[in-house]
Write a structure and sequence with these properties.
The protein has 360 residues and is an alpha/beta fold. Helices cover 44% and strands 15% of the residues. The chain has a single domain, classed as TIM Barrel (Alpha-Beta Barrel), CATH 3.20.20.210.
Length: 360
């Protein structure tokens, strides 16, 4: 079975030959630590034999100084010196008047899907190609600022909806093009929650986020592509809504935020597949390889019976992840994730909670 077949079968909530492995994001410092300088993300996916690869939308940027760029949306990004990860600094829309004259970039620009095209040429038919996009929330924050956006939910709802409409129209068109080019799976990456709770009330989520998420899901299904929803955080107050939107899978089901993957499987496993959820904040960053192996066994025992599970971290393989721990995670997934699963392992580990040792 190819990685693509394995991945897509799991998304259909079926049982492949073994539990697929994938990561939404693998940051360059971990790639370099494992394989040396000059190894690309695509090379890494081949060398580590991941079942899925992620393709990102291409943006042209204007460099303002060695660490700061402005992208095509007019958003300012500054790269952290220690990690190499860019963070949003400022956005182009600061008032409703700015929104009146603002224009989104061209979703049909020739350069928009260059990275996806490279992934299709290299991996089509071998590994599942997951195209990462967004729905309304995250890019509205980038454009307007999170504080302004959340305030607009309460005081200027028409502004929030205008931002959401602008972002969704753009992202939907890019996803349509990505599907036509060869993406196997569409994914939106907006984070709706932190470790304690959603970032907005459930009522505001249902008004300002959920309709636009549904649009993205419906667009994917019209194109006959499965849809993964990525969001970190404690999602219980809005999880019925997320599943009801028609998503095919949820990623990454963050355990340190109280998202036990076994409980999610029990409640929703007949309706969605699950991606995750080996903790990357504490376990993969500070634990030992033996700790990681135990966590992988538990995750498989809780999420993998019957299929419908893609093993991944609880967010990404970020620069603080210990390379040896990531390797231990992959090796354990392949050793203990072979179907049929070991019944004794499932019985022994499904009641455990490795994350408790990391909770403050």
């Amino acid at each position: 079975m190819t990685g693509q077949q394995r991945f897509l079968r799991a998304l259909r909530r079926q049982q492949p030959d073994r539990v697929p492995v994938w990561e939404l994001i693998v940051n360059e410092p971990v790639i370099r630590a494992l394989h040396g300088p000059g190894v690309s993300y695509h090379d890494f996916c081949d060398r580590e034999d991941l079942d899925g690869v992620t393709a990102f939308e291409n943006q042209r940027v204007t460099r303002l100084d060695p660490r700061t760029v402005r992208d095509e949306w007019g958003i300012l990004w500054r790269t952290d010196e220690a990690t190499g990860i860019p963070y949003r600094v400022d956005g182009p829309i600061k008032s409703p008047a700015d929104l009146d004259t603002y224009r989104a970039p061209d979703p049909n620009a020739d350069h928009r899907l260059l990275t996806l095209a490279e992934a299709v040429r290299r991996f089509q038919g071998r590994r599942a190609i997951v195209f990462l996009s967004h729905d309304a929330f995250e890019f509205s924050c980038y454009l307007y600022g999170m504080d302004r956006l959340l305030m607009a939910y309460a005081t200027e709802p028409q502004v929030a909806h205008r931002l959401a409409r602008l972002v969704t129209d753009y992202k939907k068109r890019v996803c349509e093009r990505a599907a036509a080019l060869g993406a196997d799976v569409l994914l939106t990456g907006d984070d709706y929650a932190n470790r304690k709770a959603p970032l907005m009330s459930p009522a505001h989520f249902r008004e300002f986020c959920l309709p636009y998420l549904k649009e993205m899901v419906e667009a994917a299904h019209r194109l006959r592509k499965p849809f993964i929803k990525h969001t970190d955080g404690r999602l219980w107050p809005i999880l019925d809504d997320l599943v009801g939107a028609g998503i095919d899978a949820l990623d990454p089901i963050e355990p340190i935020a109280g998202m036990d993957i076994g409980e999610v499987k029990a409640r929703y496993g007949r309706r969605i597949a699950l991606c995750g959820n080996v903790d990357c904040g504490e376990l993969l960053s500070r634990g030992t390889p033996d700790d990681v192996v135990e966590a992988v066994k538990e995750t498989i025992a809780k999420a993998s019976p019957g299929g419908g599970h893609i093993l991944a971290s609880s967010n990404s393989i970020h620069p603080a992840v210990r390379p040896a721990n990531y390797r231990a995670m992959l090796a354990a997934a392949r050793r203990f994730g072979q179907y049929p699963l070991d019944r004794r392992l499932v019985a022994e580990y499904r009641g455990r909670r490795y994350i408790e040792r990391f909770l403050g």
